[in-house]
Amino acid sequence: MDDFNGNQQNGTENMDKSEQYDKSGDFIFEEKYSEPMNAREQDFYQRLRGRMRSWAESEEGRKYRWTEYLMMAPDLFHLLCRLTIDPDVLFTDKLKLGAAIAYFISPFDIIPEVILGPIGYADDIVIAAYVLNSIVNNTSPEVVSRNWAGEGEILELSQKLLHKADEMIGAGTWQNIKAMFGKGFKK
């Protein structure tokens, strides 16, 4: 299997405890995940995780002020996907989650990854945190937490991310995101 730099890998290098690969080199999830992502979501997750990890290890990634937050992107994407299939999440909240997933995978967004690379995921992670914050009113925090595969307490991390949004993506961009996503999220 090739990594994102074209180097041959067998799937076990730099693997954390939650990552496993089958004999063909395809990523599989631990058994704790009751329902796997569909193939398209899993492929996006794998590519994003690999790109983010490579970038974070680069000189640019090590020096970038918001790398710690940007590294949450793959796990936030995974969480959004997991919550869309959780039976304890309301249908209206699943629509919000679906909108955030669509934004994540779309090449057309406010801060484009295509042009800026991993830094372009700043708006995606802010939107994910904004959506998570909006659904907690209807969904038990335990439901969100049990679907979180990342490190740390997701609701705390989400709040921290929202508090830094102005600095991270700029006040104007943050206001645009709240206006764009807030319209459909009001009851």
Oligomer: single chain
Largest pleated sheet: 2 strands, antiparallel
State the helicity in percent bands. 55-70%
Low-confidence stretches: 1-34
- Separation of termini? 47 Å
Strands of the biggest beta sheet: in what spatial order?
1-2
How would you sum up this structure, described in words?
Helices cover 58% and strands 2% of the residues. The chain is an all-alpha fold. It has a two-stranded antiparallel sheet. A hairpin with a 5-residue loop joins strand 1 and strand 2. The longest helix is centred in the N-terminal third of the chain and has 19 residues. The radius of gyration is 16 Å and the shape is globular.
Topology:
Blueprint: E1 20-21, E2 27-28, H1 39-57, H2 59-63, H3 67-70, H4 73-84, H5 91-105, H6 113-116, H7 122-135, H8 141-146, H9 154-169, H10 171-183
Antiparallel strand pairs: 1-2
Helix pairs in contact: 1-4, 4-5, 4-7, 5-7, 7-9, 7-10, 9-10
Brief summary of the model shown:
By secondary structure, the chain is mainly α.
Write out key terms for the chains shown.
187 residues, two-stranded antiparallel sheet, globular
